[in-house]
Design brief:
Largest interface: A-B, 27 and 21 residues
CATH architecture of the largest domain in chain A: 3-Layer(aba) Sandwich
Strand content of chain B: under 5%
Number of strands of chain A: 20
Helix content of chain A: 25-40%
Radius of gyration of chain B: 23 Å
Largest sheet of chain B: none
Number of helices of chain A: 9
CATH superfamily of chain B: MetI-like
Oligomer: heterodimer
Mean pLDDT of chain A: 90
CATH class of chain B: Mainly Alpha
CATH topology of chain B: MetI-like fold
Shape of chain B: globular
Largest sheet of chain A: 6 strands, mixed
Number of domains of chain A: 3
Distance between the termini of chain B: 40 Å
Shape of chain A: globular
Low-confidence stretches of chain B: 265-270
Chain lengths: 355, 270
């Protein structure tokens, strides 16, 4: 097991800079996720950790050792790929045994280890099958088994669940979490699915355009997004953004599209134009007027089962909120919304950064 | 009705393709006096005399041995060199890949007739005239572009992720090559083998130039030299052609089954 540290890592492919500058520690035993839209450079980071892709500048440390010049084999990492990358001509048994065979481990030990890993992943009855005879979820488990058997220093997973259907994905997600809790091996995970990142990770780093936008625990990133991009990317449906004007600084007063709010903020705001971010799940929409509620028009209702997502409009601004299932709402009719003053996030309108 | 047309077309195609061979076979069974009859007849008293004659009056067994050794050595050599080269071009980081591939292809653009004289001089200088080696080297050179191109394409079809997975699992590039790449591209290997083998088995010009005695003479040359001063032994020629075609047919069918096996096993597509 090992911790990983990126020290001023840069990566360029010819003239294109993929990673601008990466300075980041990943702690020993942590489940760390790089999350970001496709093409943001997150897979490149993983390949650099694995040693499949050289770094252009900077150093990667495993604990206190620089691993820049080590081969994947010497780094002792295991990797799970999006397409599973099982060896099609080998049986499940041979696939799982392969990394140990490469290490020239005794045949008897290999056999014991394969059986142990297979039992852990529920693959006992499938050992003699070929990958093509397996379902997606089973293939994924074989790929995990092949990665686990070596007890590597670091697990690397490149979107391992994105080829599975929705139900299986949630099942395997729980399984991954269980495995990590049992084995406690440092795991670096890459995904574009923010829900996956949130539910699995000890910490996540949101990557966009080759830069870390924010790094922290999932709940930190969710509650206090560092900038507009993170607010929009983490959470589903995305955060609402409304333009606001600062009317008064002490005490703070903001004109939010016709509504005057006075949120509490530790830092002071020097600018007059801001953007207010509010999560849809924090905006209650009701059919009854109450104190501090604002009259709005319902534009669209999307039932989500235990509640409804409701798109509402006022003064030509459209945002999303949540309503109880029993609220009497209809598209085009009136409704009432409350601004959750404690849960709003204020961003600088120019830089997009949070105050 | 539709099926009828379909099968009729197939029979027609097969007859068209195998016609010359069938005619050769019929000719090989005719006694000498029937050979030049006009109109040609299908023999009423077939005979095996020509088959006996090619082995009795010519060192034909030795000739077949020459061809077999030259063709199989060429095939093996061409596959070994070709597949390693193709692996590098398909999966490793090599600069100027497309230039290299184009350059390799250009080797096969020279017509043999243009290179045969200089090659003869080289082979004489090396002192390997009239040996198997002379032919194996030449054939390997000329079959390599084909092998490399076919195999490069087969290796390229194997997903990069499998190659990367093998690297992470602790393989050296060479281990990846023979543990992962080769088994996964067996159909490509067999296709290449068949093509190279047939090329070497049938090649005439180089064989005629570089060989002078039955010590290394190959089949096409030997058959071409059957005609004597006064007569053309059509019967013997036909019999010899039939005999040397049989191994080819056998090899093609044997390999073809493997090719189909490889293609249907869904080796690569997950």
């Amino acid at each position: 097991m090992a911790g990983i540290r990126f020290d001023k890592i840069r990566k360029r492919f010819k003239d294109v800079t993929v990673i601008k500058e990466l300075n980041l520690p990943i702690h020993d035993g942590e489940f760390f996720t790089f999350v970001g839209p496709s093409g943001c450079g997150k897979s490149t980071i993983l390949n650099m950790i694995a040693g499949l892709e050289p770094v252009t500048e900077g150093k990667i440390y495993f604990d206190n050792t620089v691993v820049n010049d080590l081969t994947p084999q010497e780094r002792d990492v295991a990797m799970v790929f999006q397409s599973y990358a099982l060896y099609p001509h080998m049986s499940v048994y041979e696939n799982i045994a392969f990394p140990l065979r490469m290490k020239k481990v005794q045949i008897k030990t290999i056999d014991e280890e394969v059986k142990r890993v297979a039992a852990l992943l529920g693959l006992n009855d499938l050992l003699q099958r070929k990958p093509k005879e397996l379902s997606g979820g089973q293939r994924q488990r074989v790929a995990l088994g092949r990665a686990m058997i070596r007890k590597p220093k670091v697990f690397l997973m490149d979107e391992p669940l994105s080829n599975l259907d929705a139900r299986l994905r949630i099942e395997m997600r729980a399984e991954l979490k269980r495995l990590h809790q049992d084995l406690r091996i440092t795991t670096v995970y890459v995904t574009h699915d923010q829900a996956e990142a949130m539910s699995l990770s000890s910490r996540i780093a949101v990557i966009y355009q080759g830069e870390v936008q924010q790094c922290g625990t999932p709940i930190e990133v969710y509650l206090k997004p560092a900038n507009i991009f993170v607010g929009e990317f983490i959470g589903s449906p995305p955060m609402n953004f409304i333009k606001g004007t600062v009317l008064n600084i002490q005490p703070l007063k903001i004109n939010l599209n016709g509504i005057i709010i006075s949120p509490l903020l530790e830092t002071s705001i020097g600018k007059t134009s801001v953007i207010i971010g509010i999560r849809p799940e924090d905006i209650p929409i009701t059919d009854k007027k109450s104190d501090e509620s604002i009259e709005v028009t319902v534009a669209l209702i999307e039932p989500a089962g235990s509640f409804n997502w409701v798109d509402i409009e006022w003064n030509n601004v459209r945002i999303k909120g949540a309503a109880k299932v029993d609220a009497d709402l209809r598209a085009g009719c009136k409704a009432f919304m409350k601004i959750p003053i404690k849960k709003i996030v204020i961003f600088d309108a120019d830089s997009g950064k949070r105050f | 009705m539709k099926r009828g047309v379909f099968y009729f077309s197939i029979v027609l195609m097969v007859l068209y393709c195998s016609g010359p061979f069938l005619w050769q076979f019929i000719t090989s069974l005719k006694p000498d006096y029937e050979l030049t009859m006009i109109p040609p007849v299908i023999s009423k008293n077939p005979t095996a005399i020509h088959y006996v004659s090619i082995f009795r009056e010519h060192p034909f067994l030795r000739i077949i041995l020459n061809s077999a050794i030259v063709a199989s050595s060429t095939t093996i050599l061409s596959l070994i060199i070709g597949s390693s080269c193709a692996f590098g071009l398909a999966k490793l980081r090599v600069k100027y890949k497309s230039f290299i591939l184009g350059f390799i292809l250009s080797v096969s653009m020279f017509p043999p007739i243009a290179t045969v004289s200089p090659l003869y001089i080289i082979i004489r200088a090396l002192g390997i005239r009239d040996t198997w080696l002379a032919l194996v080297i030449t054939y390997t050179t000329f079959s390599l572009p084909l092998s490399i191109w076919i195999l490069t394409n087969f290796f390229k079809e194997i997903p990069d992720e499998i190659y990367l997975a093998a690297r992470v699992d602790g393989c050296t590039p060479y281990q990846i090559f023979y543990k992962i790449m080769l088994p996964l591209s067996l159909p490509g290997i067999f296709t290449t083998a068949i093509l190279v083998f047939i090329f070497s088995w049938n090649e005439f010009l180089f064989a005629l130039t570089f060989t002078s005695t039955p010590a290394s003479r190959t089949i096409p040359v030997a058959i071409a030299l059957f005609p004597g001063l006064h007569e053309v032994p059509w019967g013997d020629i036909a019999a010899a052609s039939v005999v040397v075609t049989i191994p080819l047919i056998f090899i093609v069918f044997a390999f073809q089954r493997r090719i189909v096996e490889g293609l249907t096993s869904g080796a690569i597509k997950g």
